[in-house]
Design a protein that fits this description.
By secondary structure, the protein is mostly helical. It has 15 helices and no strands. The longest helix has 27 residues.
Length: 319
């Protein structure tokens, strides 16, 4: 029997706290796109967004312990310190709670939540096929963006016309890039366990080129988002946060892609993957700051907290 403290620690490791910031910024971008939303809506949407990645990650881990046993033997499910049944129940309950928080803003999110859970539960089948993993995972994250948006609008028209599609492109392409880059750290394990991911089938160089395309698409979406917003900026001070953060995100993305092309070993892949994660967070932060300049300081604090949590992860080679 495990104590509550032991179970909680095992679940936290399984949920990857340092990656909760990915879903957190995605849902926040969605609600930010809805316009000037009251804190009473923003806060529960952010909490639900933040936690949803962890519960979703725990759910998918239940179906891929074979490859994790090789590439991530420290994980509780692999070690047997926590049962698959317990993780399944906890993650499904957690995802249900997140859906309810989203639905408090708009009941349509109950349907979106069920769709996302179904996607998470079936992700492993698509991950095993080279053509499936990145886009399949990315559409689930795009649904999270929409849930944040609908929670903020409650079905009304968007306050900032033209922002939704470019922002969804940033979220979809940016996260798809994280997925394909993330495969670089598990190539040998995936090869041994029959996961025919893109890098396994076509090699690192071809996968890095596909990663470049995703990165370019995310940047294009961000630039179009800024272009659409330019007429709403009353002064240079309104424009500066979004533009400066966009430049930072671009710099991180370029560094990530260069390192990914240079990568030759699973054990060192965490360096470019980390930069892909950072660029995703900063690019969506740029998109949010462009809409709401006063959010810039909280967004920087969010990024700083991410760095602190990331530095304390259990295994440095795993992101």
């Amino acid at each position: 029997m495990h104590t509550t403290a032991q179970f909680t620690r095992a679940m936290l490791i399984t949920m990857r706290p340092y990656l909760l910031f990915l879903s957190g910024i995605t849902g926040l971008a969605g609600v930010a796109a809805a316009g000037h939303v009251p804190p009473a809506v923003i806060i529960p949407v952010f909490i639900a967004s933040f936690l949803s990645y962890g519960f979703g990650q725990a759910l998918t881990d239940c179906f891929q312990t074979d490859t994790d046993a090789i590439s991530a033997p420290y994980r509780p499910l692999v070690q047997g310190t926590i049962s698959r049944r317990a993780v399944l129940i906890t993650s499904l309950l957690g995802l249900t709670l997140c859906s309810v928080l989203f639905a408090a803003g708009n009941t349509i999110n109950l349907a979106f939540g069920a769709l996302a859970v179904g996607g998470l539960a079936t992700y492993t089948w698509f991950k095993r096929r080279w053509w499936g993993g990145p886009w399949y995972n990315a559409w689930i994250v795009s649904v999270l963006f929409l849930m944040g948006y609908f929670a903020g609008t409650d079905g009304s028209s968007p306050a900032l016309p033209g922002t939704i599609i470019p922002l969804m492109v940033v979220a979809f392409a940016g996260y798809a890039n994280f997925v394909i880059a993330g495969y670089f750290k598990d190539i040998e394990a995936d090869r041994q366990t029959g996961y025919h991911t893109f890098p396994v089938v076509f090699g690192r160089r071809a996968a890095a080129i596909v990663s470049d395309l995703f990165a370019a698409a995310a940047l294009a979406g961000l630039l179009l988002h800024l272009w659409n917003l330019q007429r709403t900026w009353a002064s240079a001070w309104d424009a500066a946060p979004g533009i400066l953060l966009s430049g930072w995100g671009l710099w991180l993305s370029i560094r990530a892609q260069i390192l990914l092309h240079r990568n030759t070993d699973d054990r060192t892949a965490h360096a470019p993957i980390r930069l892909v994660v950072e660029s995703y967070i900063i690019m969506l932060s740029a998109a949010i700051a462009a809409m709401h300049p006063l959010w810039t300081i909280p967004l920087l604090l969010f990024y700083g907290t991410f760095q602190l949590v990331l530095s304390s992860r259990t295994e440095v080679s795993q992101i």
